Amino acid sequence: MNQDRHFVEELEELKQLLLTMGGLAEERLRLAVRGLVDRDHEALDEVIAGDARIDDLQIEVDKRCFTLLALYRVLRQDDWLDALKDQVFREVLTYMLGDSATIEPGINLILISRHLERVGDHATNIAEDVIFIVHARDVRHRTGLPGPERRRPTFIGPI
After folding, report:
1. In angstroms, rounded to a whole number, what is the distance separating the alpha carbons of residues 94 and 100?
2. Which of 45, 91, 110, 142 is the least crowded, having the fewest Cβ atoms under 10 Å away?
3. φ and ψ at 73, to 5 degrees?
4. In Å, what is the CA distance from 103 to each residue of 92, 110, 131?
5. 74-92 pLDDT per residue, tens
6. Pick from 65, 68, 27: nearest CA to 47
7. In whole angstroms, what is the distance from residue 75 CA to residue 127 CA?
């Protein structure tokens, strides 16, 4: 299987886990507010009991993120991540303009995409630092390459 495609598929699985975890957290929040307003101790106990599933998903998400970072050295992904963030913004904005009920979840998705883009930036910085430490080679700016080659996303396969 093409390594880029495998990486994208693993990111898609990670996205599905995050969506599941977000949905469960949203349910817990809704139930907690209802339990608080109604003084329903059983609902509040259910919220606390349901937290274990969210914790398990968070551990799984963390594990998958660490695995992806360990297996793939992702360099020069800034342009790709920026484009993805912009695409999410445009698509979500379209939904928000069409249906006001999607505004709050839409804003949350936009913020999530922005934070994920920052995570990608940090992963790139870490990979560049490791290359510098191990090989004494500065790959941050790729100044020896022509313009388009300098900023082209490059995915390097498993370590």
Report:
1. 11
2. 45
3. -95, 110
4. 9, 10, 42
5. 555 666 777 878 888 888 8
6. 27
7. 7
Q: How big is the chain, counted in residues?
A: 159
Helix (H) or strand (E) holding 54: helix 41-71
HSE of 26 in the Cβ direction (CA atoms, 13 Å)? 9
Q: What is the DSSP letter of 101?
A: G
* Nearest in space to 127 (alpha carbons), one of 116, 138, 113, 114: 138
Q: Which CB contacts under 8 angstroms, 24+ apart, belong to 139-142?
A: 139/75, 142/76
- Model confidence pLDDT, tens digit, residues 17-73: 888 988 898 898 889 999 989 999 999 999 999 889 988 988 888 888 777 766 665
Helix (H) or strand (E) holding 104: helix 103-135
CA distance 18 to 7: 16
